[in-house]
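Hi L.,

You mentioned the student needs an example of a multi-chain input paired with its predicted structure. This one should do, with 222 residues in total across all chains.
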Amino acid sequence: KQEVTQIPAALSVPEGENLVLNCSFTDSAIYNLQWFRQDPGKGLTSLLLIQSSQREQTSGRLNASLDKSSGRSTLYIAASQPGDSATYLCAVEYGNKLVFGAGTILRVKS
Amino acid sequence: EAGVAQSPRYKIIEKRQSVAFWCNPISGHATLYWYQQILGQGPKLLIQFQNNGVVDDSQLPKDRFSAERLKGVDSTLKIQPAKLEDSAVYLCASSHSGNTIYFGEGSWLTVV
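Structure written out for the whole complex:
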């Protein structure tokens, strides 16, 4: 069964701290992996997409890594800001299907 | 570029009533998805269309849920009759040839 797990479920950090969100998946035969951001009452916004042949992707203060062999991905957020507060979702693509984790709720305190 | 449009944004209905949600994907996107997101969980794929054909509807409760995309553009998701456990956000998304998936802001359903 294809399952995606995200740890921690919730995280609260002071502004300026660097942080790591974790994602693990049971089936390593992935097509790609995406990290999404979801603000309260809003839809999902794609942050980073890592193809199965890639090891990492970077966008601004965000860096996502992928280790297919161990079934893990991490999202690194540098110098966190209150505006980063949101739910972060990891989604693994198998064929044409996205399987989501339950998300990590991030709160950055000013 | 206009995003994925969904309506209505919010709906409250009584159990056993019916409801329909509409989605207009980004222009030119052949693939359209409907996801169900229950509070505290990640989105779960209900149905995926490629143009007007169904690619995957394995997790769609077909006894009460139906979806169509007749002209290969916009789509409608219907629930009849609704149950309490159908309370969720229904997210529509679209993509072009397997690239990044773009989500709408969702239709929030409360069944009382």
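You could point out the following to them. DSSP finds no helices and eleven strands in chain B. The longest strand of chain B covers residues 88-95.

Best wishes,
N.
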